[in-house]
Amino acid sequence: MRNGTDKRGKKLAAIVAAAAVAVFLLFYGGFPLAVMWGLASQETLARLATAPVALLAAVTVAAVVGIALALHERLREIDRGEEDEAKKY
């Protein structure tokens, strides 16, 4: 029973950490997106702000997807009992 509880705690910690970083990145990328989107609503700046908005959105989404993939791999490591393998090195 102790081992299952330990795994559940490690999984929860990994999920919380990944979620916190993803939320931070969404806000970090979202604020400039909101500002650029507001500027893009003006006709003269609409053409200039479209490319940076798309680029920033793509980078933010790519980072969040990377976090999700790393979380998935971490949870698989915990399930297989490899969570402390790096301590050997």
Notes on the structure:
With 89 residues, the chain is mainly α. It has one domain (2-82). The protein contains 2 helices and no strands. It has helices spanning 2-40, 43-80. Helix 1 (2-40) runs antiparallel to helix 2. The longest helix is centred in the first third of the chain and has 39 residues, at 2-40. The model has no long low-confidence stretch (mean pLDDT 80).
Kindly summarize this structure in a few lines.
This protein has 89 residues and is mainly alpha-helical.
Any descriptors?
89 residues, 2 helices, 87% helix, elongated
Into how many domains do the coordinates divide? 1
Distance between the termini: 28 Å
How much helix, percentage-wise, in residues? over 70%
Task: Give average pLDDT, whole number.
Answer: 80
Strand proportion, as a percent range, falls in under 5%
Task: Note the run of SSEs as H and E.
Answer: HH
Q: Which ranges are low-confidence, i.e. pLDDT below 50, for 5 or more consecutive residues?
A: none
Largest sheet: none
Q: What is the rounded Rg? A: 19 Å
Task: Tell the overall outline.
Answer: elongated
Based on secondary structure, the structural category is mainly alpha
User: How many strand elements?
Assistant: 0
- Number of helical stretches of at least 4 residues: 2
